[in-house]
């Protein structure tokens, strides 16, 4: 019997529709209002740590100079107008105050986006810490997806 297959991206979209949590629920803190912080930079501008077995991040290309990587790496490569970095075997990526740490981390810098977005997906024994008003901390989840100032965990 043939069963329909759902693509990974379609599944993520459906999960995201189920409900996200937002760091912007409630009033913004004074620093965000005064600094004109953009939603897509919320996790970059406040101490945030994402750990997991596998992490993938899509970032605006103008953040390239702020990306610091450590660990075993295949280095940066260009592909279809995107700049991609892949690291394996215990890797850490820092972008401003955001830290991504995992056994496998991929970072894609995208120059042309319809909307400026920061998207992060982590899976496998995920822990998350966000030290800002409305922030949170937890560990032991299977999945985390961040899109701009919202996150979803399962």
Describe the structure.
- The structure is a single chain.
- The protein is mostly beta strands and 154 residues long.
- It has helices at residues 8-17, 30-35, 42-45; strands at residues 21-22, 48-60, 67-79, 82-95, 98-110, 119-130, 136-147, 150-153.
- It has an 8-stranded mixed beta sheet.
- Strand 3 (67-79) and strand 4 (82-95) form a beta hairpin.
- The protein is globular and about 35 Å long.
- The two termini are 30 Å apart.
- The model is unreliable at 1-7, 13-18 and 23-35 (pLDDT under 50).
**What is the overall number of helices?**
3
**What's the story with the biggest beta sheet?**
8 strands, mixed
Overall SS class: mainly beta
Low-confidence stretches: 1-7, 13-18, 23-35
Short recap of the structure:
By secondary structure, the protein is mostly beta strands.
Task: List the topology elements.
Elements: H1 8-17, E1 21-22, H2 30-35, H3 42-45, E2 48-60, E3 67-79, E4 82-95, E5 98-110, E6 119-130, E7 136-147, E8 150-153
Parallel strand pairs: 2-5
Antiparallel strand pairs: 1-8, 2-6, 3-4, 4-5, 6-7, 7-8
């Amino acid at each position: 019997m043939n069963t329909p297959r759902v693509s990974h991206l379609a599944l993520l979209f459906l999960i995201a529709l189920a409900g996200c949590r937002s760091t912007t629920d409630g009033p913004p803190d004074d620093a965000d209002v005064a600094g004109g912080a953009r939603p897509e930079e919320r996790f970059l501008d406040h101490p945030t740590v994402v750990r997991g077995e596998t992490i993938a991040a899509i970032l605006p290309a103008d953040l390239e100079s702020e990306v610091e990587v450590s660990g075993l790496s295949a280095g940066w490569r260009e592909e279809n107008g995107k700049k991609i970095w892949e690291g394996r075997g215990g890797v850490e990526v820092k972008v401003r105050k955001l830290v991504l740490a995992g056994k496998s981390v991929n970072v894609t810098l995208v120059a042309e986006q319809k909307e400026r977005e920061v998207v992060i997906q982590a899976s496998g024994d995920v822990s998350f810490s966000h030290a800002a008003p409305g922030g949170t901390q937890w560990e032991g989840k299977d999945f985390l997806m961040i899109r701009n100032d919202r996150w979803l965990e399962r």
